[in-house]
Amino acid sequence: MLGRVNHIALAVPDLSAAVERYRSMLGALLTEPEALPEHGVTVVFVTLDNTKVELLEPLGAGSPVAAFLAKNPAGGMHHICYEVEDILATRDSLVAAGGRVLGDGNPKIGAHGKPVLFLHPKDFFGTLIELEQV
Questions:
Q1: pLDDT tens, position by position, 17-34
Q2: Is the CB of residue 81 less than 8 Å from the CB of residue 132?
Q3: pLDDT tens digits along 27-78
Q4: Which terminus of the chain has a lower count of CB atoms within 10 Å, N or C?
Q5: How far is Cα 8 from Cα 61, in angstroms, rounded to an integer?
Q6: Residues tagged active-site
Q7: Is the Cβ–Cβ distance between 60 and 40 less than 8 Å?
Q8: What is the DSSP string of 30-97?
């Protein structure tokens, strides 16, 4: 069911500072910031040979990432994203097995222009999981 790790997302309190640190201290290749109002975040991706790291900054106080940062002011790992071939079939299989999909259960378009869903962290040992259809 699961494919490769698409990205690991880190919530950061200051996206500009995070971009500068990754660039200056680690020599990272970074994308331009992209606002995703439907998800309540601005994102920048650190491009690696085998995956990506997504830096997330909240877009306003109502963002789920703002709530995360209120509990973790220095930032931290927010979620891990796995690729799946068929997001609807994966969702249906997970729900049938007792898993919970966040939101209304319907995929939204994510940062890569592909359908995504988020799974309840309590079902996966405290880790928020994003699924992205490839």
A1: 999 999 999 999 999 999
A2: yes
A3: 999 999 999 999 999 999 999 999 999 999 999 989 999 999 999 999 999 9
A4: N
A5: 23
A6: 130
A7: yes
A8: EPPPEEETTTTEEEEEEE-SS-EEEEEEESSTTSHHHHHHHH-TT-EEEEEEEEES-HHHHHHHHHHT
